[in-house]
């Protein structure tokens, strides 16, 4: 086992370090020690996501992720959940466009169990996979789709905007949840072929972070994962590159049973991993990242035409990223009023760029988000895997904050000018089916009363 | 089997020796202005969490002004004697801080999170908000309109709509708990700056408030920082407040909130139980986990992993309000979504799970796994400063001792299968559950009636 190099902490990394290793079968391993709390996080990223799916089989990567919790060679039924939870750990898995991840956070003395479990399913899932679990999890996933998308107002907005933004046939045209018809069509043989194609040690990165002994951890990794054969034959993902700007405004108007009019838009932005993407992140933060942002001040505070207005960034490495605007109108305000104000603010920003105060605030907000992300062993393990899988270098996770702080106002202005334009977006407009009468509306409830089943990010599906 | 051939298998590993971990014990103190302060050093937690509890419970809202506590809580971050609303938001963001506030049955709670490098700045803004809120007329008016705009969105959410209906069913109309925490359109539209100011004057003062500060406090002179910030807040002394008794009608019945065309039915099945002063609490936590705490608990084992009716169903107990002598109440509930055609069969199975549990009890193996999970996850659950601060604040809010959580872990470990069974069976008796279903009445009413789990009524979604 070739030993990796040890790095010293870099500025902006909060004193964190990580070491890299590679097993003979190609499994990349990243370790990061932190003895403050007796916990250890195990995170495994497989370099496969919904972008690898083919026509007629959307949702397969996510359905497959569910099947990874249905037992493997030495683990019966729901054993993955039972053993981890019985050891005082927590676990889940999620699927996005570009990867599938599995993670366990364990009390430090139970780390070896999590490694054993992950190795067992990486090496022997097909020994346990059968029609019964396939049919059962297909039903579960269809209910996940109903609960999180189909039975919720605006629930399918993300799916629709994605389809408008990435053209037909593009690997990112569909979202990870997939369509009902494709979920129904998926066969056991599809799942088996998917495993054989993508679930190999040389298509994965394993990170272990927390109160660990690196030498012992590596020995365990070698013991449990070392004998799993590597295999090639994974098809190269379809090309996700697109022209820098869309060149026209795509638009869809939906008349649905929604409580208020809404304007949503997706802007085509630079790929993740570039300095321009960090600049775009700052631009979106200044424009719509909180209650001192330009759009919030304009639409919610001053014009009072919107209930909520904000921008989010979906970072993508294999295709242009997406800047997602979401505005819900106030009272009976019409969409063109909102849209004109947004266009005016975006044009003004592109012309002026951010003020020094706006830069400072946006950078402070993004820095704080990174502190939160790296503040838990699970968050750190996930970020190390992300940079290793998508950009080939886990160390980049530890310097991500520094890169955001290095971006200049000129770069923010430049990306806004080039990208935040009406001819570079897809727009989704919601009109309520019948004019909503709030005449006898009463008794809402607080969010903490909602179902306690874990929900993932908008672009992710989760198994739990 | 060829799939198995290449990999070398090893037996399941045994755990190493557990490392000691205990729920952190806070230090308590009082500032000169009477503000109670709990603080706790958590090495490595660079984002400090500060929670402030104000003794302004929802039942102190004036009649007809439900929601005034919520508007006040939101107005704290809309300007002070130092900054306009826009400036205040900008200053917070410049410090990389977030400030959230909400009103609930026990009182108003304000949560600040800020990197420790800017703790002084964050505490200063928090103190300004509490000490000298502007409550400007135009800002309050905007918050009221914004709140009115939110209501239809909440009513459109199946989970929230179900929670609203369950509260209305369980509690008498005279109880504040029967009505939405954040008010109705009728009450919210009556709120203005004067009402917010009056509520503030009457209920907000340092002498009846508590601040909890948690994070990596290495090199931080917390006493000095607090003295300059929250210490500058003044007010008259306060008096302890009686906690009203909570009554609820848990006669077994079913209410369908009709949403024609819904592809799923949202379930919320509940009643009330004791607060955390009750001796049954640890056993109830344990038993409830075995019933519906996770994907491998009894409910999901059948409804999800065997039948595929749902993405997940959970059972939980959540304190609504508590008094020093345990005169409070918690909501005991089962919640989840099932697809419309399987609503009847899913409820049938759910009731079968409850009946089987009552008839046969939990197994020792189930109890053991539950204890191992509930106790074992503590170090993970409390890794962040925010999680620790939130639990410490809950304890204060519920009149529990500072070592409640630490003691709870010891009690869970000492609770047996028989006690856990008795607690969960008493918590979820099959004939004393109010079932709210948000779904397509035309599709689900007949199958639900056929189950015989109580009288079925249908109400309009709104």
From TrEMBL, chain A:
<comment type="similarity">
    <text>Belongs to the peptidase M16 family.</text>
</comment>
<dbReference type="Pfam" id="PF05193">
    <property type="entry name" value="Peptidase_M16_C"/>
</dbReference>
<keyword id="KW-0482">Metalloprotease</keyword>
<keyword id="KW-0862">Zinc</keyword>
<protein>
    <submittedName>
        <fullName>Insulinase family protein</fullName>
    </submittedName>
</protein>
<feature type="domain" description="Peptidase M16 N-terminal">
    <location>
        <begin position="28"/>
        <end position="161"/>
    </location>
</feature>
<dbReference type="InterPro" id="IPR011765">
    <property type="entry name" value="Pept_M16_N"/>
</dbReference>
<dbReference type="InterPro" id="IPR011249">
    <property type="entry name" value="Metalloenz_LuxS/M16"/>
</dbReference>
<feature type="domain" description="Peptidase M16 C-terminal">
    <location>
        <begin position="186"/>
        <end position="366"/>
    </location>
</feature>
<feature type="region of interest" description="Disordered">
    <location>
        <begin position="431"/>
        <end position="464"/>
    </location>
</feature>
<keyword id="KW-0645">Protease</keyword>
<feature type="compositionally biased region" description="Acidic residues">
    <location>
        <begin position="437"/>
        <end position="451"/>
    </location>
</feature>
<dbReference type="InterPro" id="IPR050626">
    <property type="entry name" value="Peptidase_M16"/>
</dbReference>
<keyword id="KW-0378">Hydrolase</keyword>
<feature type="compositionally biased region" description="Basic and acidic residues">
    <location>
        <begin position="455"/>
        <end position="464"/>
    </location>
</feature>
<dbReference type="InterPro" id="IPR007863">
    <property type="entry name" value="Peptidase_M16_C"/>
</dbReference>
<dbReference type="Pfam" id="PF00675">
    <property type="entry name" value="Peptidase_M16"/>
</dbReference>
TrEMBL record, chain B:
<feature type="domain" description="Peptidase M16 N-terminal">
    <location>
        <begin position="37"/>
        <end position="156"/>
    </location>
</feature>
<dbReference type="InterPro" id="IPR011765">
    <property type="entry name" value="Pept_M16_N"/>
</dbReference>
<dbReference type="InterPro" id="IPR050361">
    <property type="entry name" value="MPP/UQCRC_Complex"/>
</dbReference>
<dbReference type="Pfam" id="PF05193">
    <property type="entry name" value="Peptidase_M16_C"/>
</dbReference>
<dbReference type="InterPro" id="IPR011249">
    <property type="entry name" value="Metalloenz_LuxS/M16"/>
</dbReference>
<protein>
    <submittedName>
        <fullName>Insulinase family protein</fullName>
    </submittedName>
</protein>
<dbReference type="InterPro" id="IPR007863">
    <property type="entry name" value="Peptidase_M16_C"/>
</dbReference>
<feature type="region of interest" description="Disordered">
    <location>
        <begin position="1"/>
        <end position="20"/>
    </location>
</feature>
<dbReference type="Pfam" id="PF00675">
    <property type="entry name" value="Peptidase_M16"/>
</dbReference>
<feature type="domain" description="Peptidase M16 C-terminal">
    <location>
        <begin position="190"/>
        <end position="374"/>
    </location>
</feature>
């Amino acid at each position: 086992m070739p030993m990796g190099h040890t790095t010293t902490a870099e500025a902006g990394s909060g004193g964190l370090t990580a070491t890299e290793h590679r097993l003979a079968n190609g499994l990349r391993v990243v370790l990061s020690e932190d003895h403050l709390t007796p916990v250890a996080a195990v995170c495994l990223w497989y370099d496969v996501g919904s972008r690898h799916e083919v026509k007629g089989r959307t949702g397969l990567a996510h359905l497959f992720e569910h099947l990874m919790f249905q037992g493997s060679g030495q683990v019966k039924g729901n054993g993955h959940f039972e053993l981890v939870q019985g050891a005082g750990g927590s676990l889940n898995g999620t699927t996005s466009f570009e990867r599938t991840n599995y993670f366990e956070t364990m009390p430090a003395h139970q780390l070896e169990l999590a490694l054993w479990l992950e190795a067992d399913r990486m090496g022997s899932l097909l020994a346990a996979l059968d029609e019964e679990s396939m049919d059962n999890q297909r039903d579960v996933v269809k209910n996940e789709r109903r609960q999180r998308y189909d039975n919720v107002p605006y629930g399918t907005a993300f799916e629709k905007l994605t389809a408008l933004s990435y053209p037909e046939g593009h690997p990112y045209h569909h979202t990870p949840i997939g369509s009902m018809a494709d979920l129904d069509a998926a066969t056991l043989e599809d799942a088996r072929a998917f495993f054989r194609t993508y679930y190999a040690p040389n298509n994965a990165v394993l990170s272990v972070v927390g109160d660990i002994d690196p030498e012992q951890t590596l020995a365990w990794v070698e013991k449990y994962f070392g004998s799993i054969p590597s295999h090639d034959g994974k098809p190269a993902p379809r090309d996700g590159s697109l022209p820098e700007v869309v060149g026209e405004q795509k638009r869809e108007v939906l008349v649905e049973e929604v409580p208020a009019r809404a304007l949503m838009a997706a802007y085509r932005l630079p790929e993740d991993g570039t300095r321009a993407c960090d600049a775009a992140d700052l631009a979106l933060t200044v424009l719509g990242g909180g209650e001192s942002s330009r759009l919030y001040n304009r639409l919610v505070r001053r014009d009072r035409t919107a209930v909520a207005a904000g921008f989010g960034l979906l970072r993508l490495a294999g295709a242009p990223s997406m800047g997602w605007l979401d505005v819900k109108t106030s009272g009976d305000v019409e969409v063109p009023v909102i849209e004109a104000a947004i266009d005016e603010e975006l044009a003004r920003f592109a012309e002026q760029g951010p003020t020094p105060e706006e830069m400072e605030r946006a950078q402070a907000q993004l820095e704080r988000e990174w502190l939160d992300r790296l503040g838990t062993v699970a968050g750190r393990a996930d970020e190390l895997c992300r940079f290793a899988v998508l950009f080939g270098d886990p160390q980049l996770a530890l310097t991500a904050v520094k890169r955001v702080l290095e971006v200049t106002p000129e770069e923010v202005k430049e990306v806004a000018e080039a990208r935040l334009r009406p001819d570079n977006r897809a727009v989704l407009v919601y009109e309520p089916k019948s004019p909503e009468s709030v005449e006898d509306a009463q008794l809402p409830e607080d969010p903490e009363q909602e179902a306690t089943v874990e929900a993932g990010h908008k672009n992710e599906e989760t198994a739990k | 089997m060829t799939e198995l051939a290449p990999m070398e298998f090893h037996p399941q590993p045994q755990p190493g020796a557990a490392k000691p971990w205990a729920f952190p014990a806070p230090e308590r103190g009082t500032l000169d202005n009477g503000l109670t302060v709990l603080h706790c050093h958590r090495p490595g937690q660079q984002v400090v969490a500060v929670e402030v509890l104000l003794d302004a419970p929802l039942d102190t809202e004036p009649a007809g002004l439900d929601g005034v506590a919520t508007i006040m809580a939101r107005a704290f971050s809309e300007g002070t004697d130092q900054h306009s609303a826009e400036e205040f938001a900008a200053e917070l963001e410049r410090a990389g801080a977030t400030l959230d506030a909400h009103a609930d049955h026990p009182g108003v709670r304000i949560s600040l999170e800020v990197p420790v490098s800017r703790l002084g700045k964050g505490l200063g803004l928090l103190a300004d908000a509490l000490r000298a809120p502007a409550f400007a007329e135009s800002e309050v008016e905007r918050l009221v309109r914004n709140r009115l705009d939110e209501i239809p969105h909440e009513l459109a959410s199946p989970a929230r709509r179900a929670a609203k209906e369950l509260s209305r069913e369980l509690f008498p109309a005279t109880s504040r708990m029967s009505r939405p925490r954040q008010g109705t359109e009728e009450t919210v539209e009556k709120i203005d700056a004067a009402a917010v100011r009056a509520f503030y004057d009457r209920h907000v003062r340092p002498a009846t408030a508590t601040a909890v500060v948690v994070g990596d406090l290495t090199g931080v002179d917390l006493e000095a920082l607090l003295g300059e910030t929250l210490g500058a807040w003044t007010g008259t002394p306060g008096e302890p407040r009686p906690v009203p008794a909570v009554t609820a009608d848990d006669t077994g019945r079913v209410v369908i909130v009709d949403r024609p065309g819904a592809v799923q039915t949202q379930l919320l099945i509940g009643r009330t139980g004791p607060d955390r002063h009750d001796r049954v609490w640890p056993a109830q936590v344990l038993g409830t986990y075995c019933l519906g705490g996770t994907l491998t608990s009894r409910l999901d084992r059948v409804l999800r992993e065997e039948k595929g009716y749902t993405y997940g169903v959970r059972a939980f107990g959540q304190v609504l309000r508590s008094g020093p002598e345990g005169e409070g109440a918690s909501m005991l509930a089962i919640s989840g979504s099932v697809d419309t055609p399987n609503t009847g069969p899913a409820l049938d199975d759910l009731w079968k799970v409850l009946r089987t549990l009552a008839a046969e009890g939990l197994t020792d193996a189930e109890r053991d796994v539950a204890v191992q999970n509930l106790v074992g996850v503590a170090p993970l659950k409390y890794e962040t400063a925010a999680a620790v601060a939130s639990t410490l604040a809950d304890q204060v809010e519920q009149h529990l001792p500072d070592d409640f959580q630490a003691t709870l872990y010891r009690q869970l470990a000492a609770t047996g299968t028989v006690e856990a069974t008795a607690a969960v069976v008493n918590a979820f008796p099959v004939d004393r559950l109010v079932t709210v279903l948000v779904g397509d009445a035309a599709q689900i009413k007949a199958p639900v009636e056929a189950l015989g789990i109580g009288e079925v009524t249908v109400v309009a979604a709104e």
